[in-house]
Design goal:
Number of strands: 22
Strand content: 25-35%
Distance between the termini: 12 Å
Number of domains: 4
CATH topology of the largest domain: Rossmann fold
Shape: globular
């Protein structure tokens, strides 16, 4: 497949890395020659310096015979125009644009992106995706990450094993005996900076970041088995009243009316603006690093602080201060990967990376075919994939113990006729089963062959 990626920033780079690793013909455009040089040096892609919305630049990039354009520059308007030009002049079949400004996404303007107006097939809003990712984590207290699959029937949950975890040093093959009714299946472990795709004889260790799959209705029980019995937060403090903070507050007002929410916003005009848009949320104007403001927000009795300002340092420091003054838990938005190695030792409980959420959503739409969901993990070292097993797949019709799965691939759950099946050695995958897979990124191509899945496009 031939793909044009407009924008060589972090999101564009990661999408290019994923698609080029799968053997696609990728061209990356950007007005910054340094970014173009960086991506072409690191990856097997073509690079072109120029304005992504210019017809001559798109023509030079090969838009006339491209299958897809993914516009993720820093400017919403450039992304939208690039997609429109690709459609009108070059008839590019699939057009994906990242749009940050919520003004374009208000419900009253929904007709803007219809095919007979601005022909963009998929709009990705990083702020909305981040807010949804945070809401999923808040729904499962103690979780580091929560990924929904199979129309919400299954959840892939990440959890850190603490010292008091009752199943630490327990071989995975014994979990089914200890908790026969939970339907829990461990698919991946982050141990330090290393990814481990475990087998039955492997044991979990204190400090491991464990990804497990379970039916949605059993996740709370599973969290308790992993030593996490945190209560759902009823008092939440949001640091930052930008698009993410406002979206979160709206979600709480609409879906969780029993939750008490406060927002701290440093810009006076913005604080007044969001206060007018919210009915039950208390909006405080001030600096979240100011002790007096934190005390006014009653941080000592706050169960969860959610730091989502546009400044990583403010988010980290506000989270740590809030916890020092009594907040139980911190969920922190961090854009830069520089802080990744420090977060655990600093005391931040949960981090959310906008780049990963955006890349995951884009890959989900890129891999249409039999792939219905993709979630990129930890700077792209692994993926959670939901796929449909076909009649032609070599894995269909035989017990899983005979399937000879690649070493970096692990099947976490099977959804058949709306019911969740926990995979065992004698489990037989049938055609049309929805299969939830944990795979090292470099094993995605082997997974494709295993399921006879072609990455088809619409």
């Amino acid at each position: 497949m031939k793909v044009i990626i407009c924008g060589a920033g972090q999101v564009g780079f990661n999408i290019a890395r994923s698609l080029s690793a799968e053997g696609n013909d990728v061209t990356v455009l950007d007005i910054n020659p340094d970014l173009v040089a960086k991506v072409t040096t690191a990856l097997d892609v073509k690079g072109l310096v120029g304005f992504a919305s210019y017809p001559s630049v798109l023509e030079q990039a090969g838009a006339a015979d491209s299958d897809m354009i993914i516009a993720v520059t820093f400017a919403d308007e450039v992304n939208m125009v690039a997609c429109e030009v690709a459609h009108a002049l070059f008839n590019v079949p699939t057009k994906i644009a990242r749009v940050r400004s919520q003004n374009y996404l208000e419900p009253q303007w929904r007709d803007l992106f219809r095919r007979d107006s601005m022909a963009i097939d998929v709009i990705i809003s990083p702020e909305i995706e981040v807010a949804r990712a945070i809401m999923r984590r808040l729904d499962v207290p103690g979780a580091l990450d929560v990924i929904e699959a199979a129309e919400g029937r299954v959840r892939v949950t990440a959890v850190r094993l603490e010292k008091d975890c009752p199943i630490a040093d327990t071989p995975l093959e014994r979990l089914a005996e200890m908790f026969p009714d939970l339907g829990v299946f461990v698919v991946g472990i982050i141990r330090g900076d290393r990814l481990v795709v475990p087998h039955g004889g492997d044991s979990l260790r204190v400090g491991d970041e464990v990804y497990f799959v379970a039916p949605t209705e059993r996740v709370s029980q599973a969290m308790a088995a992993f030593g996490h019995r945190e209560r759902e937060a009823r008092r939440i403090l949001i640091v930052g009243g930008g698009n993410v903070g406002l979206f979160l507050a709206r979600q709480f007002e609409e879906e969780h009316p029993n939750v008490n929410v406060k927002i701290i916003e440093i810009n006076r005009d913005r604080a007044a603006q969001i206060a007018d848009q919210l009915s039950r949320t208390v909006v405080l104007h001030g600096d979240a690093l100011d002790r007096d403001i934190l005390e006014e927000a009653n941080v000592a009795n706050t169960e969860t602080v959610v730091a989502v300002s546009n400044d990583d340092e403010v988010n980290i420091l506000a989270s740590l201060l809030a916890k020092r003054f009594g907040a139980v838990r911190a969920v922190t938005l961090i854009n830069s990967s520089t802080y990744g190695a420090l977060i655990g030792s600093l005391g931040v409980d949960v981090t959310v990376n906008p780049r990963e959420t955006t890349v995951s959503r884009i890959l989900e739409h890129v891999r249409r075919g039999r792939i219905s969901a993709v979630h990129s993990l930890r700077e792209g070292i692994a993926e959670i994939i939901e796929a449909e097993a076909l009649d032609t797949s070599p894995i269909v019709g035989r017990p899983m113990r005979e399937a000879k799965l690649p070493q970096g691939v692990r099947i976490g759950a099977i959804v058949r006729d709306g019911k969740v099946v926990v995979p065992r050695g004698d489990t037989v995958i049938k055609a049309k089963d929805r299969v939830i897979i944990f795979a090292e990124t470099e094993m995605v191509k082997k997974f494709e062959k295993l399921f006879s899945v072609r990455f088809e496009f619409f």
